TrEMBL record:
Main location: membrane
Signal peptide: 1-22
One Pfam family this sequence matches: Porin_4
Protein name listed in UniProt: Porin
InterPro entries, A to Z: Gram-neg_bact_OMP, Gram_neg_porin_domain, Porin_dom_sf, Porin_Neis
Gene Ontology CC terms, in alphabetical order: cell outer membrane; pore complex
UniProt KW Transmembrane keyword: yes
SUPFAM superfamilies: Porins
Gene Ontology molecular function: any one: porin activity
Record's bilayer topology term: Multi-pass membrane protein
PANTHER family from the UniProt entry: MAJOR OUTER MEMBRANE PROTEIN P.IA, PROTEIN YDDL-RELATED
């Protein structure tokens, strides 16, 4: 349940004083998600683990708004991600998920500044299974369709729906004098909805993300203190000195009775400082079917394929492939509490290789399983509970 109080009232509580006049509101909200996951193979062994945020990251936040007149409001959002298993902050940051302030205009949109989600993920991710059901995350979340990273030093424009159209654009500054492009990011995306049909598309470009020479740039952070949310999205050294990353994506959705059908495609181009390159394409089809107001079934299939050059241990032009099937069930016992179960299967095919012990091995890696498999396949099964407040 959302808890609301005035800005002035919140300050009064914190300072132990009373303020007579309140203008605006402050909303406290959050999610606690905890579950148990069994995985068939992690480095050659099966594993049973308690995991936080299996269905959606555990978090708490404050969202505020102060009317300024004529439909204009000052807005803010602070959101902390945490691990419910041990109580630690996510990505080593106090407010890893959001820290922003700005203005909104009724009937037009908003302009915000700070640390916030990327526009491409905001607009396009909802068409993918990974955008609403975390177990369906693409390998390494290579396209950010599961919001693994946020953009620091950013300015973002987001419109309200205008005759069915919606637009979002963001620019993340490098904040480094004399090196304007060293760890910067920008993206733009748009969507359209008309009745049961909706679709969206967008583009993202990042220059020198996670640069060790600029840990205060738009993405990542090379030190533990800053929290490396960009690098943690990738697996086994995919983030090895990226010079430029480009992501283009599009998706479409259609509501058919109790079913919501989605399809999506993303193209990811990774160019490295040493001349190496990777190209990954993610093609996804998914469906959500609501049997009744409390019970929903989810299914997602994603085929990831691409190319990789200059991979350590090989001089070949590699063509990796991954097949991933995700099934889920979600049951709401109330407006705030739900139980869920999911099952994921991934098969690594073609040259789906990563460097392991100085040699190349065909290895599966389900993002939510807790670790890479030692073979070309992996299965993960989870059950859990999520509570919203």
């Amino acid at each position: 349940m959302l808890k609301k109080c005035s800005f002035a009232g919140a300050v009064a509580v914190l300072l132990g004083s009373q303020v007579a006049h309140a203008q605006g509101s402050l909303t406290l909200y959050g999610i606690i998600d905890e579950g148990v996951t069994w995985s068939s193979n992690q480095k050659g062994h099966s594993a049973v683990q308690l995991q936080s945020g299996k269905l959606g990251g555990s978090r708490w936040g404050l969202r505020g708004e102060e009317p300024l007149g004529n439909g204009l409001s000052a807005i803010m959002n602070l959101e902390n991600g945490f691990n419910a298993t041990n109580g630690t902050n996510s990505a080593g940051r106090e407010f890893a998920r959001a820290a922003l302030v700005g203005l909104s205009k009724k009937g037009l949109g908003s302009l915000t500044f700070g640390r916030q989600a990327d526009s491409l993920a905001d607009i396009v991710a909802p068409f993918f299974g990974a955008g609403y059901f975390t177990p369906a995350t693409h390998i390494g979340d290579n396209d950010d369709m599961n919001w693994y990273w946020r953009v620091n030093n950013s300015v973002k424009v987001t419109t309200e729906s205008l005759s069915g159209f919606k637009f979002s654009g963001i620019y993340g500054f490098s904040n480094q004098a004399g090196a304007f492009a060293n760890n910067r990011e920008w993206s733009a995306a748009a969507s359209y909805a008309n009745g049961p049909l909706s679709f969206g598309a967008g583009y993202m470009q990042i220059n020198h993300p996670n640069a060790t020479t600029n840990t205060s740039g738009a993405l990542g952070g090379a030190s533990t203190a800053n929290g490396d949310d960009y690098g943690s999205a990738f697996f086994y050294g995919m983030d090895g000195g990226v010079a430029r990353q480009q992501v283009a994506g599009a998706g479409a959705g259609y509501a058919l009775g109790a079913a919501q059908i989605g399809i999506g495609f993303t193209n990811v181009q990774l160019d490295y400082n040493d001349g190496a390159s990777r190209k990954l394409n993610n093609a996804s089809a998914n469906v959500r079917y609501r049997l009744n107001p409390a019970l929903a079934l989810i299914a997602d299939y994603t085929f990831t394929y691409g190319t990789a050059d200059h991979v350590p241990g090989s001089t070949a032009h590699l063509k990796p492939r991954w097949h991933q099937l995700t099934l889920g069930v979600d049951y709401s016992v109330s407006k705030r509490t739900e139980f869920y179960a999911s099952a994921e299967y991934q098969l690594a095919a073609g040259d789906a290789s990563i460097v392991s012990g100085g040699t190349l091995s065909k290895i599966a890696y389900i993002q939510s399983a807790g670790g890479a498999s030692s073979s070309d396949s992996q299965v993960a099964v989870s059950v859990g509970i999520r509570h919203k407040f």
